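Hello again,

I reread your note about wanting to compare the complex against the isolated chains. To keep things tidy I'm splitting this into two emails, and this first one only covers the full assembly. Below are the input lines as submitted, including protein chains and any nucleic acid or small-molecule components. They are followed by the predicted structure of everything together. The single-chain runs will come separately.
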Amino acid sequence: MTWADLGSGALRAALPLALWGLAASIYAVRRRDARALASARWSSAAAFALTVVAAVAMVGALVAHDFGIRYVALNNARETPVFWSAISLWGALEGSILLWTAILAGATTHVAWRGTRSLPSLATTALAVLFGMLAFFLLLVVTPAADPFVRIDLPPPNGRGPNPLLQDHWLMALHPPLLYLGYVLFSVPFAYAMASLILGEGGDRWLVATRRAALVSWALLGVGIVAGAWWSYAVLGWGGYWAWDPVENAAIMPWLVATAYLHPVMVEEKRRLLRVWNLALVIGAFALTILGTFLTRSGVVNSVHSFTQSAIGPLLLGYLVAILVLSVGLLLWRAPRLVDAGPVGAPLSREAIFLFQNVLFVAATLTVLLGTLYPLVVEAVSGAQVSIGAPYFDRVGVPVALALLFLMGVGPQLPWQGASRATLERQFTAPLVAAGAGAAWALVAGMAGPAGILAYALAAFVTATVAQEFARGVRARRVLRAEPAATALLNLFRRSGRRYGGYVVHLGIVVVALAIATSQARTVEAEATLAPGGSMEVAGYRVTLLGLRDETEPRRRLVVADLRLERHGAGDEVRPALTYYPNATVAIGSPGIRPGTGEDVYAILAAFDARGRAWATIRIRVIPLVSWLWVGGAIVGVGAIVAALPPPKRRERAEPARVAAEAAVGAT
Amino acid sequence: MSGPASLLRGRRLLLLAALATAVLIAVVALGGLGGSTVYYLTPTEARARGIAVGATARLGGLVESGTLVYEPTSRDLRFVITDGVTRVTVSGRGAPPGLLREGAGAVVEGAFAEDGTFRATQVIAKHDEVYVPPSPGATPARGRP
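Full-complex prediction:
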């Protein structure tokens, strides 16, 4: 049996299982039939196992260079090392859809076995929704348009090799799967929301049940986006990390909506408000994940990521339209049952801040959506091809981001329902002083322009609010339980992980904001043509071209520039290169990066003497604080893990009394 | 919090403020759209449309063989971009991206000068997975700019 037989056989066997699971879970809900539910459970597990077999078969075929499979012939070559062969599973369209399907099957199985235990009717209905989506994707992977195992009658002696951009950096092993996990896991909250509407529950059970799934999905998406930015920085060689490319936009849009969603979830839980709004956000975020897939996989937009045009586009578009029509239809049908328990009240309450935060996030999303889709509209209307440049996105993005940073500091400091003057003074005196210090620091650090200075001030503001929260929490535990400070801090994370994990996320966002503001405002660039031994000066660095050399590897050829960096006597070497792959018409630039806590030195080999290697044009960018962008992303991930971990079970009942006591101590 | 009447007034104020924020963002966004739109044209289309001198545009086509000249010391860059029908001379400062090659696709962003040459502020080579040269006079093949 070949890899192709194994893989395509597994996918074809999984499809009827998904359809059976769909039927069985519907039957199980309607007749309250335990046997049907058991059957649905086992079919989800079997379908998951089969999709994993198919994915493994594809990896096996890639590693074995089985060019009898078209996907392998197009995305692999004999020279491709094992690691890059294996991760080519997500290097192109069909493999990505295969991975997507396997993750969706995993999510379905999780709901089938775990979810249905605590909330039988709701989770089983959600299970039916998930089976429906899984059936669509399995149908997709067995149609010729997206079948990863399509065979070639006459296998070529060697394949074309992976896309050169995708075999250069280890982050490629991380960035796509993280994004796919984030995208696909969001179908769990979506499925529960739909189930709640189908059953006409009108309550919040779906939301409470999927809080963790939403948080994990959001975090994976966020970390995946940062990993993508890092990859783009380390590989694409233009010295930036974000270009408002349609595919970047496709990833950031669901993340923005999901961020908006995670916050009022707390409002609904605490005050039972905004029910219709929360459902609309879930639908919006989920639809945007599919829109992203459609945009990137159909070739309708120009992008770094666009795979070759494919017949899969119309199918995905049909799926997107079906999802939107069904979910919005359900929402409208059930809207009368979704009555809020009371209006949002005072402007200076936490729920009011959440409302504003939501307006900003949704407006930002719509802005990005408009900029992403506008070229399509123009082309449809006038036939002209246009692109929307970064100035459009920055114009809206910068003020909205600053406003959100501000709200991030204000929101957690305000009580529910409204704040008194005394509360405001107590909560904001120290943060406002910190904001002033932050602005002064910005001026000292050489930030110019109101946006940059404001970013520093707000970063200090938010950091101070978070520090204040931690200080009060620790003090309360020390006073009430006589715990040493370190234990108290640990217990804050363990017992109120959602709250304090959330603060850690906020700190991560502050770090990201500072990194972006500083790197955007204070990057210094210089370019010069150097002969070996020649040097240039940039931002205090002396850059010397030691020499140019040629390197040959089985799968590629490189021209490497050896550069020496010197500042204050300390020296480093960086080696930017141009890489030639046999399957690419042009060279791929690999920047040489010397990362640092204060600044990165980013070197690009822009041009070189093709005949005698007698000169090279070197471009140097000195980019301050850019490494902190990745660190900030990691902090966000860690905070999300803390927030998602379940609190220890036993002392749960003592909690309300303790919280009250904490608040009392905090108030003094 | 004194009575439902003030609560209602507070709520209306809040919703109005939220709405005003949304409208403000929409106005800023729509206002920025026109200024940030970059047309993506072939040399033939650029000539036919009569793109104004100084207006930002992107030209896509092939780098004509034998025309790419890069002067390392001054870092002056010159080449002809063509779609097989119309040729446009492109000049720029700074090294060509390593990706730029004669006979291969390129996208240049910049504006036309008085003398009819195109002053590039950015030169982007196309590297599709499989590069297909555009047919004469056709719109640039889609793919990575």
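For quick reference: Chain A touches chain B through 63 residues (CB under 8 Å).

B.
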